[in-house]
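G., before I forget:
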Amino acid sequence: MKARGSIIRRLLGASILTLPLFLGITGYAIDQAHTRSLVAAQQSQLQLQFYGILGVMEWSNTQPISVERLREPRFWQFRSGLYAFIHTRNGYLQWQSSSANSMEYLQEAFTPTPAGKEVFDEIVLRGAPYFRYRYHVIWEDEHGVEFPLIFTLLEHQDTFRSELLSFRKNIALWLGLAAVVLLLIQVIVLRWGLRPLRDMSRELRELEAGKRESLGGIYPRELTGVTHNLNRLLEKEQQQRERYRNTLGNLAHSLKTPLSVMRSATTPDTDPQITDQLDKMNNIIAYQLQRAVSAGPRRLGVKTPLRALLDRLCQTMNKVYLDKNLSFNLSCDEQHALAMDEQDLMELLGNLIDNASKAAQSAVSIEVKALGSASVELSIEDDGPGFPEDKIGLLMERGNRGDQYGSGQGLGLAVAVDILNAYEAELSIGRASLGGAKVTMTLPA
Amino acid sequence: MRVLIVEDEPDLLDYLARSFEAEGFACDRSADGEDALFLGEEFDYDLAVVDIGLPKLDGIQVVSRWRKNNRNFPVLILTARGRWQDKVEGLEAGADDYVVKPFQIEEILARANALIRRSAGHASPEMRFGPIIIDTRAKTVLRGDQRLELTTYEYNALEYLTHRCGQTVSKSELTEHLYDQDFDRDSNVIEVFIARLRKKLDPEGSLKPITTVRGRGYRFDLKAEQ
């Protein structure tokens, strides 16, 4: 089944998508607040400049307005960026700062304003942006005559804009850094937070590879339900398998013992039909029980080490066929393990090695070779008479014997073929280099 | 030869015991694991036939405990399940051979004889002691070309002594292995067997196969030829 991405990638993807949005909103809010405070600072600065002009301004009915003692040097420097004008209500220029000399276009900034009210705004003159501060003052002379005067102060936005740009660069840099750090922290937190899932996945892989029997790690509360249930399922399956086998074993015992008694009651004079039927019953019971006991393929659980099992079977055969003084040549590395139930494997190999031992004159050879990582080729050879080639197909059916040595029920090869079928494994019969029969199987590793 | 038969099905136990007795074996019977364990530890058998599925204590445990207690007589196990797992476990526990139920009694008897012979260190069913040839399968004895007519007890006494050739076998041991538990052990029937055997095996008195060891028993002195 195809995996649907990784959880870490999903969460990181979501973070990568949402983080810029949040950081963008944050950056925008900070920028707006900073801009507003800078503009307010500009306003109060222009207001101060206005008060400065008002404080040093000299005026009389007969003399033009004089503002000689202004402290702010930028009013005296030509094109300094800070300009001041005093107009009458009708727009007649009464005074302008030296900085605005020969910059008549700046007077376009004049617009009438209500008396006694300060106005602060922005204006663009000849493509250049300015802050504009205006104040309509009603001046009264000693005779009580009122003279309305409109003060206009302009400040070029160059400094303001460069300061704002530098601030924006700074804030972008810091927010970018914060984004990277946040993402890194998130990766670390995610890896730490998802570690139990990774551990579980590793243990499941080990379970599948047959290296462990159950999930053994200590998991957080959220996962214990899953691991506990999986372990219980595995345990229950194993118990059921055992119970099934025991029940079938007991059934075999309770059917075969009466059969033995019935056979013991027969004499050479007994009707051969009765003894034939007894033999048939026995064969059917033996074959069907052997078939039913096979567990079939398993995907989870510990693999069965092959070498130890073959050693046990060879020792058993040595004991059973002691008189024949057979030599068992076993070529199997320790690391070979099969994804088969131990009892199925023992039944399969027990039957086949027993057949080979019965047929052999002096030697039985067992060879195991790895075929990639997923299967193993196992061959059993003997130096007996071998199978007649025209009967090989029939041999795999139950009750058909390939031997003349008499003992057993002729079920061994048929039971082996049934077990192999359950595991979708293959068996082939041929002639051995030792001269006898060779049985070769491809088994799941 | 004295055999212990352990089987919980009474009819089958009776059939097995009768079949062994008909072949000249002295049979003790047991129907459960605990009793079998006791008998095997108490008496020195030449063979035990043990069913795996026994009440109280299963056959594999019985054999395993005998072996732990150095009871080394050969054991033939009977298994109904026929699974290799059972056969391998039985043989690993210390049994020497197995027979799957239902069995042909001839197969059990043949395997029993082979086990007894093997346990005495004889590889072949035919044992040669100079001119005396004993065929343990046919249970016949030849002296040269001449077949000797021995009764079942005479044959069994001879086979028992030859399995322990060179060793002194006491009269009571011989009695135990030839007769079942109910036999009167004080009778002098063993002496009569030995006298008859000597006469049949060595009519001229030149071979002297059986020596009387005063106060201790009898010894078969001829050496087996391979």
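Confidence is low (pLDDT under 50) at residues 404-409 of chain A. The longest strand of chain A covers residues 128-140.

More on Monday.
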